[in-house]
């Protein structure tokens, strides 16, 4: 019979669909020789999320087009679009995302020049939860303002 544990690697791997899911039907069961137990690893779908952010090619900082309530400011429209696809994926999913304005400045511990305007408030980040439908693009639109820093004036 051999030393204890000598049959450790003498196991079985068999592809079964024990849960009747449609995710490629690749549930895997793993058991060891002379063992009273088995492990079931259920397969799950792989979802590919496609994201796109649309910004203007340039911003004219010499001619402000918006107002922040007190003074004219430069502004731009930001559009964030998302969709998902994959084989045997659910028809709809929830997606949480965060948009951060002027990341390069924040990474250098500098004050950002761009901020989003949500409900009349200036914010550096936008956190949203979307409901996405398979193969359908969903877009959200945001207004952003550009602060003029002293060396630009």
Search tags:
mainly beta; 153 residues; 6-stranded antiparallel sheet; 3-stranded antiparallel sheet; 48% strand; 1 helix; elongated; 3% helix; Immunoglobulin-like
How does this structure look, described?
With 153 residues, this protein is mostly beta strands. It folds into two domains: 11-41, no CATH class; 48-152, Sandwich (Immunoglobulin-like). Helix content is 3%, strand content 48%. The chain is built from one helix and eleven strands; from the N terminus they run βββββββαββββ. The chain has one helix at residues 103-107; strands at residues 11-16, 27-32, 38-41, 48-54, 66-67, 72-85, 92-100, 114-118, 121-123, 125-133, 138-146. Strands 4, 5, 6, 8, 9 and 11 form a six-stranded antiparallel sheet that branches. Strands 1-2-3 form a three-stranded antiparallel sheet, with no helix packed on it. β2 and β3 form a beta hairpin. It starts with 10 loop residues before the first strand and ends in a 7-residue tail after the last strand. GO terms for molecular function: integrin binding. Residues 43-147 form the Integrin alpha first immunoglubulin-like domain. InterPro entries: Integrin_alpha_Ig-like_1 (IPR013649), Integrin_dom_sf (IPR032695).
């Amino acid at each position: 019979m051999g030393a204890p544990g000598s049959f450790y690697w003498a196991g079985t791997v068999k592809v079964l669909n024990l849960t009747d899911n449609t995710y490629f039907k690749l549930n895997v069961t793993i058991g060891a020789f002379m063992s009273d137990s088995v492990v079931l690893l259920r397969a799950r779908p792989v979802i590919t999320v496609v994201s796109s952010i649309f910004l203007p090619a340039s911003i004219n900082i010499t001619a402000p087009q918006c107002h922040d309530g007190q003074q004219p400011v430069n502004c731009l429209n930001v559009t964030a679009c998302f969709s998902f696809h994959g084989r045997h994926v659910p028809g709809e999913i929830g997606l949480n995302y965060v948009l951060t304005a002027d990341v390069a400045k924040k990474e250098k511990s500098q004050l950002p020049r761009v901020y989003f305007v949500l409900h009349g408030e200036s914010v550096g980040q936008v956190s949203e939860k979307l409901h996405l439908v398979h193969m359908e693009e969903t877009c959200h639109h945001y207004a952003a303002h550009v602060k003029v820093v002293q060396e630009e004036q």
